[in-house]
User: Which sequence fits this backbone?
C-alpha cells in the first residue's frame, strides 16, 4: 500500500485500502465459482491474480515483521497479509483436482495452482510467519498465524512435488501441535494431514519429502505431541499421518 500521509486525504486512504478490498472481492468470486454460480473466475487467474496476491502476501508479511515499521503501518500490513493469505487459501480450496474444460469456472487444477504457490515463495513466507510467531505474543501475529496455517494446509493438498517442503517448515508447523490453543493445534494437524495425503499419492521418489523433512516429522517432540493429540480425540487425523509414514518411510516412522 502507499505510505501513510500527514493529511487525511480521502483518495490516499482509498488507494491504501484498495488491495484489501480487492482481496475481499475475489473471496466472494471464488466462493460463488465453487458453488457453480460464477463461470468466469478464470479471468482473474488469466489477469495474473496468483502472482499479484502472492507478492502482496510476501511484501506485507515482510513489512509487518520488520522492526523498522511504525505501529500504524504494521497494523495495515498485518491486515493486508491476512486478507491476501485468505484469498489464496480460498482459491486453492475452490479449484478442483481435475479441470472440467471449457465449463470449468477456473479452467485450471489445484495441482497447477498450488505448484505456482510453491514456485513463487508462499511456503517460505509461511515459514517466516510461523517462526516469528514463536518469538512474539502479538495478537495480530497470532491472528495471521492461524490464517497462515490454513494456507499451508490448502497448499499442501495440491502439491505434487513435496521435495520443495523444507524440514524447517515441517518443524515450524509441528511446533504448534503440542500447544495449548486447541484451534491452532487443529490447524497445525490439518496442515500435516494434508501433507500426508499428498505423500500417500507420491509415486516417484524425487517428488517425495526429503529425508530431512521426514526426520522432522518423526522428531521426539512432534511424536509426543501427536500421541497426546490422539489421546485428546484426534485419532483419525493423527492415525492417518502415522499410517502413511509407516508405509512411505518405515525407518523414520519407527519413532512412533
Assistant:
Amino acid at each position: 500500500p502507499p505510505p501513510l500521509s500527514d493529511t487525511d486525504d480521502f483518495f490516499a486512504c482509498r488507494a491504501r485500502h484498495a488491495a484489501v478490498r480487492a482481496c475481499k472481492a475475489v473471496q466472494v468470486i471464488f466462493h460463488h465459482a465453487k458453488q457453480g454460480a460464477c463461470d468466469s473466475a478464470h479471468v482473474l487467474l488469466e489477469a495474473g491474480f496468483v502472482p499479484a496476491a502472492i507478492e502482496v502476501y510476501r511484501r506485507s508479511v515482510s513489512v509487518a515483521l520488520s522492526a523498522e515499521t511504525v505501529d500504524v503501518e504494521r497494523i495495515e500490513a498485518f491486515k493486508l497479509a491476512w486478507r491476501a493469505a485468505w484469498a489464496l487459501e480460498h482459491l486453492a480450496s475452490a479449484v478442483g483436482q481435475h479441470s472440467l474444460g471449457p465449463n470449468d469456472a477456473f479452467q485450471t487444477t489445484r495441482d497447477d495452482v498450488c505448484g505456482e504457490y510453491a514456485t513463487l515463495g508462499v511456503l517460505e513466507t509461511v515459514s517466516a510467519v510461523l517462526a516469528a510467531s514463536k518469538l512474539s505474543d502479538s495478537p495480530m501475529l497470532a491472528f495471521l498465524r492461524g490464517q497462515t496455517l490454513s494456507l499451508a494446509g490448502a497448499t499442501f493438498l495440491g502439491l505434487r512435488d513435496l521435495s520443495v517442503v523444507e524440514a524447517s517448515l515441517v518443524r515450524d508447523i509441528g511446533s504448534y501441535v503440542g500447544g495449548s490453543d486447541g484451534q491452532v493445534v487443529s490447524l497445525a494437524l490439518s496442515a500435516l494431514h494434508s501433507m500426508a495425503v499428498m505423500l500417500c499419492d507420491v509415486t516417484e521418489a524425487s517428488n517425495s519429502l526429503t529425508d530431512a523433512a521426514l526426520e522432522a516429522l518423526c522428531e521426539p517432540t512432534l511424536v509426543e505431541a501427536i500421541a497426546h493429540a490422539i489421546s485428546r480425540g484426534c485419532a483419525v487425523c493423527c492415525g492417518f499421518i502415522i499410517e502413511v509414514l509407516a508405509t512411505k518411510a518405515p525407518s523414520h516412522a519407527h519413532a512412533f
In short: The radius of gyration is 19 Å.
